[in-house]
Amino acid sequence: EVHKIPITILSRCQRYDFKRITIDTITDRLKELMETEHVEVEDKALRYVAKTADGSMRDALSLFDQLVSFSGNNLTYKNVISNLNILDFDYFFKMVDFMLAGDVTNILLTINTIFDNGFEGHHFIIGMGKHLRSLLISKNKDTVQLLKESETIVKRYEAQAANCTQQFLLQALNIFNKCDVDYKMSNNKQLSVELSCWYIYIVNSYP
């Protein structure tokens, strides 16, 4: 928070600005440690740990240490999302497919599964917002590089983005942003999430 430091102090300092470490760099470093510690790990799991660390190698190492202590010397993607209590991105891909198809039944069943598994609805809302943003930037070859994902996942985003209009994605983002703001005030949080998904389907069906 360098903006909080008075100019009189800054003028007497040597300044160094440190950027966040990239996901690829963190992943490569963790992979080296896996080999040293003789831990078998899925590449998908390793990249997710690096992504969760949000640019901090220290946080990535702490997460790695915790996960290995729970999972032993065989770290899978399933172990990672289970121990970190993170929603698998497959949920978000499925939800967008259901919205585009107007499959209200599976929308309801998926949301109910998420709540039954103990996930906070607000986490789902935030995750959907990130997913929709990723789809939006996947529609343009110049912005797709902003995705910090593996090549396999990027191709999956591009494939789903091709089925979504820009208007649909912008409207969906706006709806989930409003749901994010109103969520804490809602007395029926599951219904708030369901209504947001229904509304996106209606907007897509009757533009």
Query: Roughly what percent helix?
Result: 55-70%
Q: In one word, what is the shape?
A: globular
The rounded distance between the terminal residues' Cα atoms is: 44 Å
Strand order of the largest sheet: 1-2
Radius of gyration computed on alpha carbons: 20 Å
Mean pLDDT: 85
| Percentage of residues in DSSP E strands | under 5%
> Using DSSP, what is the number of strands?
2
- The helix-and-strand class reads mainly alpha
Low-confidence stretches are none
Plain-language structure description:
The longest helix is centred in the middle third of the chain and has 18 residues, at 121-138. It contains 11 helices and 2 strands. It is mainly alpha-helical and 207 residues long. The chain has helices at residues 7-10, 23-37, 43-52, 57-71, 77-83, 90-101, 104-116, 121-138, 151-161, 166-182, 189-205, and strands spanning 40-41, 74-75.
Task: Name a few traits of the molecule.
single chain; 207 residues; mainly alpha; two-stranded parallel ribbon; 11 helices; 2 strands; globular
Please outline the helices and strands.
Layout: H1 7-10, H2 23-37, E1 40-41, H3 43-52, H4 57-71, E2 74-75, H5 77-83, H6 90-101, H7 104-116, H8 121-138, H9 151-161, H10 166-182, H11 189-205
Parallel strand pairs: 1-2
Short recap of the structure:
The chain is 67% helix and 2% strand. It is an all-alpha fold and 207 residues long. The N and C termini lie far apart (44 Å).
